[in-house]
Fold this sequence. Notes:
Chain A is of the alpha+beta class.
Amino acid sequence: MSFEIKEIVESAGNNLPNLFDLSAFGVLWEEGSIIYLYQEESCPHSFTQEVVKNMVKVFSILGKGTDDVSRFSIQVEKRRLRPNHMMVDPKATLKSYLTLPLAVEGEIIGCISINSDQPNAFDAQDLQFFSVIGYQMAATLKHFQRFSSIKSIAIYDTLTNLYNRRYFEDRIRGEAQKAFYSGSSLSLVMVDIDYFKKVNDTFGHTEGDRILYEIASLLKTSVRKKDTVARYGGEEFILILPEAGLEEATMIAERIRRLVESTPFEIGQVRMNLTVSLGISNFPSHRARSKEELVKMADLALYDAKRGGRNRVCIYNAPKE
Amino acid sequence: MAKENRGGKWTSDLVLDLYSNLLMEVWEVVSALIGEAILELLFNLTIQKIGEKYPFLNSLKVSEEGISSDGVREVCRTIPPIDIHRGFQGLINHLFHLFSTLAEGVISREVFPKVFPKVREAERIISQK
């Protein structure tokens, strides 16, 4: 679930207790198989389970799969929803509820529910009001769902699931600004698969694409959480390593080189080993004055690695003046 | 098969008229409570389910504007009135089941007073044959 969608659910959870006398408010969101539950802090666990079970049941009756609760992850947020009322009885059971599908253009994307431990807590007027809220919420959630998917298309490379070049440009701008301003370290590692053209020419582009995907996965597992791995173009990848000095960057690059070298790749019926060449640039060590210069330095270092025989890591070497 | 009654109208037409009016009334009341889009969805789910046993119901047309039984009329000419009655009864029962699942008795309380007399009337028409 994207941050924006979580915000919408949270906002509803914060405001609905002002409109209805409820013990719990739930949103079942199909895309993430998630149920968000905002409920009175004194609600017993058994009540929570009843609410969840009921929402999943409604969702299945609406033709959306089974009523298997375990397929949903449940996030409960306990709040003081009814400050003027008595605490919920520890043995309270679900006595009243209104559950409506979140439907947009004939498609059910989830459901919302208000629940109470009191009998006949909701009437026709509440239902009318709640349905208006439901329509608004469905439309807003759908809007953000579309927005998230467009955003994802815009920043990810569809073949490797790595960030794309455009995202890299955005990210390096921010990281370089931060490093140049604060003087903190910033390293770039440019990676290129050795003799990749041969793979494509011998085994075809489908196999070549699969190799790109597998090497991209290896890159992702070799970096730190704060690092960015992007496809730079063709069989070239680039890593942004914030706050990494030359030593740490070299360690990461060397780890990648060894990992690729020792991983057997199955291409068609053949099992073979591949290698990568890597070039490193660093701020402030290499005195780059712009992000473009830092990228160029990593590229030149990569060129050195290729020229030096491939399957190696090279650090940018400034030309002697 | 359908029979012509004393007034010259087919029994199946009478039953169909009755249920058509009833569905329109249900539509009017419930759409005001939960909105047309959700109601359309519930009607379509119901038709899909009950239509498996009573295929003539698949000719009902539901849109956000309401429910139309024009397409059903021709089909119903060849169906015994008791089956038309049972089909619509099944449809209404399932619809009420959905209403209860969503909102306990809140919707049913508003609609039930309209439904009960009409179903009784349909039973009376059929028993008159």
